[in-house]
DNA sequence: CGGTGATCGTTAGCATTGCTAACGATCTTG
DNA sequence: CAAGATCGTTAGCAATGCTAACGATCACCG
């Protein structure tokens, strides 16, 4: 059977939904929600950046990011800092506690996946890696089509 | 570079999150939310089934499914029907309108992906297909590990 | 130099999804 | 026939997403 686009789209959708539900459980278990962990990840690895940049990186509207950052700040994972040269901007930077929980979350998630990933042979991992690459490509292609439409 | 599990987990997480955000936009555009479309899909393709079965299929608690079904029913996509032999059960079945929007949603999603999927060469599609298979395997492996833990 | 418009982040308010706890109705079993 | 189990619902909480509207700050042009 040759894989047709329609079936691939359905399967991809289901697979992504199921995967995220599993990962979300792991994230909840360490005491942080998925969107927050995702935003925190950007802050930790992407250095300090403004709320607006963070919203764009997470593909979310500014009001939503305001609340996520507020939550992260209340938990002590990030801090807001007024920009020195532009009073409108707010720089978000990670605290040591934030870096710690990122590491914990990653470890937790990895351990959740590890049994399965490590059970994969070299061939399986290569397939996963190339599948991820394809998904990323589809992803950015769709995003581009979308932004072009809305422009 | 040989792909290591940690990096694969991170990339997979990001790829899945990004993909779902794109797909959700398509679903929202046709006037139905992601969880509802997902549940509707199970009802359409899985024949009539009880609310509890549907909740399990979607890996969601019964109260959540009650509300999703209520929403679908208000929009005329499904109907509740009392079970003939067991008064506690509620059978959920799809309406013609429900089947129609499923087809529309699928078409929409496929068209969103099609530009990218169809741009893939035979090799790309094969990579995507095998990647999906691997993700599904990881998925069910994690689910199993989880339920065993909680038992 | 001053004012007008753009940009940034926030607040307020709405809908949806997810959960747990508790309940009423129905079935099953002793 | 009574006691416990099962099913779906209701009520109430927290989190995420959106749009609309606002105050503060900046940039630009006359």
What does this structure look like?
- The structure is a homodimer of 151-residue chains.
- Chain A has 151 residues and is mainly alpha-helical.
- Chain A is built from six helices and three strands; from the N terminus they run ααβααββαα.
- Chain A has helices at residues 5-29, 34-45, 51-57, 62-74, 96-119, 122-149, and strands spanning 49-50, 78-82, 90-94.
- Chain A has a three-stranded antiparallel sheet.
- Chains A and B meet through helix 1, helix 5 and helix 6 of A and helix 1, helix 5 and helix 6 of B.
- Chain A binds a DNA duplex (30 and 30 nucleotides) through residues 33-36, 50-52, 60-68, 71, 86-90.
Primary descriptors:
DNA-binding, 8% strand, 3-stranded antiparallel sheet, 151 residues, 6 helices, homodimer, mainly alpha, 72% helix
Short overview:
Two copies of one chain form a homodimer. The first copy, chain A, has helices at 5-29, 34-45, 51-57, 62-74, 96-119, 122-149, and strands at 49-50, 78-82, 90-94. Chain A is mainly alpha-helical and 151 residues long.
Topology:
The structure is a homodimer of 151-residue chains.
Chain A: H1 5-29, H2 34-45, E1 49-50, H3 51-57, H4 62-74, E2 78-82, E3 90-94, H5 96-119, H6 122-149
Helix pairs in contact in A: 2-4, 2-5, 3-4
Chain A binds a DNA duplex (30 and 30 nucleotides) through helix 2 and helix 4.
Largest interface: A-B, 56 and 56 residues
Strand content of chain A: 5-15%
The percent range for helix content of chain A is over 70%
What would you call the shape of chain A?
globular
Task: Give the SSE order of chain A as H and E letters.
Answer: HHEHHEEHH
Strand order of the largest sheet of chain A: 1-3-2
What integer is the average pLDDT of chain A? 81
Report on the biggest sheet of chain A. Answer: 3 strands, antiparallel
The oligomeric state of the chains shown is homodimer
Distance between the termini of chain A: 40 Å
Total count of helical runs of at least 4 residues of chain A: 6
Rounded to an integer in angstroms, the radius of gyration calculated over CA atoms of chain A is 18 Å
Low-confidence stretches of chain A: none
Structural class of chain A: mainly alpha
| SS elements, strand count of chain A | 3
């Amino acid at each position: 059977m040759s894989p047709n686009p329609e079936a691939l789209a359905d399967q991809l959708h289901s697979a992504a939904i199921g995967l995220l539900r599993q990962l979300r459980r792991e994230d909840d278990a360490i005491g942080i929600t998925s969107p927050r962990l995702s935003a925190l990840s950007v802050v930790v690895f992407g250095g300090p950046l403004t709320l607006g940049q963070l919203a764009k990186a997470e593909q979310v509207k500014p009001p939503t990011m305001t609340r996520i950052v507020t939550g992260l700040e209340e938990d002590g994972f990030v801090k807001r800092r007024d920009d020195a040269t532009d009073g409108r901007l707010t720089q978000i930077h990670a605290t040591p506690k934030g870096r710690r929980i990122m590491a914990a979350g990653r470890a937790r998630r990895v351990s959740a996946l590890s049994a399965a990933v490590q059970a994969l042979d070299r061939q399986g991992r290569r397939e996963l890696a190339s599948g991820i690459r394809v998904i990323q490509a589809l992803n950015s292609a769709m995003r581009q089509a979308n932004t072009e439409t809305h422009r």
